[in-house]
Amino acid sequence: MFSQDFRTVGIRGILSNAYHLSLRPGLEVIERHGGLHGFMRWNGPIIVDSGGFQIFSLAPLTSLNEHGVTFRSHVDGSEWFFSPEEIVRIHDRLGSDIGMVLDVCVPYPCEESQVRKAVEQTLEWAERSRKAGGKTLLFAIVQGGTFPHLRRFCANALVAMGFPGYAIGGLSVGEPWEEARAVLAEVLPHLPAQRARYTMGVGTPQELLMYVSMGVDFFDCALPTRNARNGSIFTGKEKIAIRNACYAKDERPLDESCPCRVCTTHTRSYIRHLFMAKEILATQLATWHNLSFFSRLMREARQAILNDAFVEFKDRWMERYKWDE
Amino acid sequence: MFSQDFRTVGIRGILSNAYHLSLRPGLEVIERHGGLHGFMRWNGPIIVDSGGFQIFSLAPLTSLNEHGVTFRSHVDGSEWFFSPEEIVRIHDRLGSDIGMVLDVCVPYPCEESQVRKAVEQTLEWAERSRKAGGKTLLFAIVQGGTFPHLRRFCANALVAMGFPGYAIGGLSVGEPWEEARAVLAEVLPHLPAQRARYTMGVGTPQELLMYVSMGVDFFDCALPTRNARNGSIFTGKEKIAIRNACYAKDERPLDESCPCRVCTTHTRSYIRHLFMAKEILATQLATWHNLSFFSRLMREARQAILNDAFVEFKDRWMERYKWDE
Question: Fewer CB atoms < 10 Å away: N or C end of chain B?
Answer without folding.
Answer: C
